[in-house]
Design goal:
Helix content: 25-40%
Oligomer: single chain
Low-confidence stretches: none
Mean pLDDT: 74
Strand content: 25-35%
Order of helices and strands: HEEHEEEEEEEEH
Number of helices: 3
Distance between the termini: 27 Å
Radius of gyration: 21 Å
């Protein structure tokens, strides 16, 4: 159901807020030199990632709807809202060779399709579920409080 439809059902002075938050939990950890070496070899796909649980820009968005307006208000954060102590501090590395890698330049990112991959490697990032729930809940509450305050200060300007 659209926000404006909800606003109209509730009443003309209603304000409906839809918080959209993405909480990434990993970050690229491969060094620049390693990326260059992997690219020079060709036929190799390599991923190096480390746990980095956070709410980061620009993924946080607050959609606001009320009778005279329906739109998005991007809440600026001063930096990532980092959630610590959930995952062990460890790098996860995996590589696979392929008979053929095909790269597709898609604007701001490149998609690589590997055919006839010779290796499969699944790794699990162990985490403390209680710390995950507590940390993410606190980070989202912080984001919602900041978004609400930002809306109060700037929403009607």
């Amino acid at each position: 159901m659209s926000m404006m439809k909800i606003v109209m059902q509730i009443g003309k002075d209603a304000i409906v807020v839809d918080f959209k938050v993405t909480v990434p939990f990993m970050a690229d950890s491969e060094s620049g030199a390693s990326k260059l070496a992997t690219g020079a070899v060709g036929g190799v796909s390599k991923v190096v990632a480390s746990p980095y649980l956070r709410i980061s820009q620009p993924v946080g968005q607050t959609n606001v709807g009320y009778s005279s307006m329906d739109g998005a208000l991007n809440t600026p954060l001063k930096g990532d809202v980092v959630i610590k102590g959930v995952f062990e501090d460890k790098k996860f590395k995996s590589s696979a060779s392929a008979q053929q890698n095909t790269s597709y330049n898609m604007g701001h990112f490149t998609k690589v399709v590997s055919e006839n991959v010779s290796n499969s490697n699944i790794q699990v990032a162990e985490c403390d579920p209680d710390k995950y729930i507590k940390g993410v809940t606190e980070a989202i509450n912080y984001f919602m409080e900041e978004s609400t305050q930002f809306f109060i200060n700037n929403g009607k300007k």
